[in-house]
Amino acid sequence: IFSRAEDASEYLANHIIDKINEFNPSALKPFVLGLPTGSSPEGVYAKLIEANRQGKVSFQNVVTFNMDEYIGLSPSHNQSYHYFMYDKFFNHIDIPRQNIHILNGLSKDIEAECANYEAKIKSFGRINLFMGGLGPEGHLAFNEAGSKRESRTRKVELVKSTIKANSRFFSNDESKVPKYALSVGISTILDNSDEIVLIVLGELKKFALDKTIWGTKNDSNYPSLYLQDHSNVLIVCDHSAAGLK
Ligand code: GLP
């Protein structure tokens, strides 16, 4: 728990850098990193970019999988998660383009798109580290309330509160927010990842964070509760998210 969001971001960025650097670079397998969008991880991305510029970390041997993408937005749409990731992170680091994986929200065959994504993740073996954010109602990626523990990558319908929360990126117009998205499932995250890290910032996340840690296990109204099932989860948050003044 950090008093300032910036310090929380720096701590998590350094943690990720350490994990990448500790990983044997001569290994045949690349370091596999799961990534989120949202405003919370932006500070982490900024710190990772800075460290990459300073030569403290390289992404040459890193493969990434993003958590989710809106259905119906093209990669060039400035609110697509594809655009966000390139704009905030990938365009500024030394990662080979072929190492980046993001679900295609324009795919004509959603089922195949999701199945291929799962297969691609599997083809790399384990995800070394999955970073996530937390929705105000406890969603993880776009796994909304009611998502099953065994869920895999699929099409999801966004709930009203998510559409409302995300409308801030669509000129506060809820009608412009896509109603559906593609998202990795709870099982995709939990069962494939050696480590899960969450960045949780701001007072709006207080309730969800409290639930995540103290809620009754397997209450599917709060998908982040499933994290209690995993043996290696690190939550990095600021004072407001932790309910400390
Ligand atoms: C979106 C994303 C989530 C993210 C959440 C919180 O709904 N699909 O992956 O965790 O927003 O975003 P923010 O960090 O901006 O509050």
Automatic annotation (TrEMBL):
Residues of the Glucosamine/galactosamine-6-phosphate isomerase domain: 5-231
Alphabetic keyword roster: Carbohydrate metabolism, Hydrolase, Isomerase
GO biological process terms held by the UniProt record: carbohydrate metabolic process; glucosamine catabolic process; N-acetylglucosamine catabolic process; N-acetylneuraminate catabolic process
Gene3D superfamilies documented for this protein: 3.40.50.1360
InterPro entries the UniProt entry points to: Glc/Gal-6P_isomerase, Glucosamine6P_isomerase, Glucosamine6P_isomerase_CS, NagB/RpiA_transferase-like
EC annotation from Swiss-Prot or TrEMBL: 3.5.99.6
GO terms for cellular component: cytoplasm
UniProt KW Glycosyltransferase keyword: no
Top-rank taxon, per record: Eukaryota
GO molecular function, one term: isomerase activity
Catalytic activity: alpha-D-glucosamine 6-phosphate + H2O = beta-D-fructose 6-phosphate + NH4(+)
Protein family according to the UniProt entry: Belongs to the glucosamine/galactosamine-6-phosphate isomerase family.
Name of this protein: Glucosamine-6-phosphate isomerase
